[in-house]
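Holo prediction — glutamine.
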Amino acid sequence: MKYIFVTGGVVSSLGKGVVTSSLGALLRARGHRVAAVKIDPYINLDAGTMRPYEHGEVFVTADGAETDLDLGNYERFMDIEVKRASNITTGQVYKSVIEKERAGEYLSQTVQVIPHITDEIKDRIRRVALEVQADICVIEVGGTVGDIESLPFLEAIRTMRFDEGYENTAYIHLTLAPTVSGGEVKTKPTQHSVSALRGVGITPDFVMVRSKTPLEDDVRRKIALFTSVDPESVFSSFDVEYLYEVPLALEAQGLGRAVEKRLKLEKIPPSLSFWHDAIKKLKDPAFEVNIAFVGKYVAMGDAYISILEAFRHAGIYHNSRVNINWVNAEELEPENVNAAFAGTDGILVGPGFGHRGIEGKILAAKYARENKIPYFGICLGLQIAVIEFARHQAKFEGANSTEFDEYSKHPVIGIMPEQLEVAGMGGTMRLGDWSMQIVPGTLLERVYGSKDVLERHRHRYEVNPAYVETLKEAGLVVSGVTKGKLERGAGLVEAIELADHPFFLGLQAHPEFKSRPMRPSPPFKAFVGAALEFKGIKTQLERNTESV
Ligand code: GLN
């Protein structure tokens, strides 16, 4: 097993996750089996309770872990599936060490950061790599070198070189080379950061420098000299238009080959044609389409990164630029709804928690239904569509979700009593993979091209079964239900649609989490396709009116 550790310095948010993911993509392009680990030095056990507009999206793994959004990048770039164990936090490490201590597993020794905490960290890293029988495991250490909380992790990875051997371990350190006024690129922060890393005993094999533009040769040589690595081991991670350009930018500088050499891996020519083709389509697409994203945390793209990426994947597939126009649900009113959706080819109501902006989202679903604009509702977006339909089509006045109105006369969305009773599900979230049975002959079946699908979930409230029959009679199509054992929620509504509408789809799941550049999520693909069609029809109509 080979281990590649990625650390960072100078400042946070340099794109360490993308560099790690891109490195993984280059290894995957050579046919290697790759495992990925993200270390988050915070005390939280997971990201589930963290604010998305501060920390970015909570990514959900197939096995139901709520993790850092970087794990989403790993899955997308490397086309692998990561599990709960791939996200290691300080909280988890200490929790299990303390539990072992209580259970007497340390045989009355004094339990200490070194070796007990560091051993636990190393065990956890190795377990991830072993479980997927990886050839290479890439480990991203969150935070920046010099942080107090990352010290035990740095100590753990430092000693892995001695446990695993020189040829099986490599360290990449990411720094920043800022450009000051006058255009000069400064190398001092990189020098300082590398010496801080040496200070904890780690000598980087590669220095990766984030900068605005590709590093000039003289700057590269200067960094090499001051950090004592050879110039070919200094890489430039410069600003690009699309994140998916990073693997190619690094490969062009020889990163893949350098890692092969350093870890004594067989030299394999990478297959990168997918990435080249994808970049071409992203930069110079044949078509363009406008999607209105109705949400709460507007202007905070990181809170919805998987959704935005899923649109990008669908865009690559359709050779189209997918423009996402944020519509703030809290400002949406009957008076401005027309203006808000002018030029819109598809309306998306995304996931969300809490009551803010709910009425605006309901208005958006109504507008899409009545004007036959393609509609895609994800999780909360399905619940919104059901509330809207219940109020205006099934005439359940005041219909709502008990999340927003505890005393609603018609709680069409709610927490199921059985859900509260079932052990392990008591009012908590339905998380991770759940399989859905698709009703034949529906739009959903055409979307997926199969009868059974697995998608990831992260929600608490369900469509209330007591209302399902009446809603169906009023014309709501339930096109997917939860599969599985009855006591585990079988038969719950997973998908809804409308028969007399070109594309109106609501999914209780979050299909964005499984979308990959090379394998776009089927509902996103279909929704963007429907939006393109909608635009085409509109153009056709405009032409007809012109000729009249
Ligand atoms: N708040 C809703 C629920 O808990 C929807 C959650 C979501 O959109 N992820 O069911």
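READOUT: Residues 539-548 have pLDDT under 50 and may be disordered.
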